[in-house]
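re the bet — no i am not wrong, look at it urself. input seq straight from the record:
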Amino acid sequence: MKDNTLNPETSISLPNENEIDPTSVTGSISSTSSSSSRWKFFGQNVPKSEVVYISQMFIIFVVIVSCIINLSLKNGNSEMWVSFFGYAFGAMLPPPKLQIAKPVNLLKH
């Protein structure tokens, strides 16, 4: 049976509060997060979210065009191409948002 007691030779010691410089920790985190939030895209620095969005829309557009071409040429299993088309078209649409009206108090004086 395995012994679950801590071995002092393998235990981890954490630094004392006086040994940690908070400016160095936060400075390193902020500098890495700001540099990774922008990517080079065709020679320009653009936000990472825009590159991801454009790439996703391009791939979905290619899937939709290939589905339409294969459905019109009757190439392969039509059920497969219709399901790919439906999935890609659904991925392009924004998610629906339910707007709930405020309840009306009929017992109000």
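see?? Residues 48-72 form the longest helix (25 residues). told u. also Residues 25-34 have pLDDT under 50 and may be disordered. so pay up
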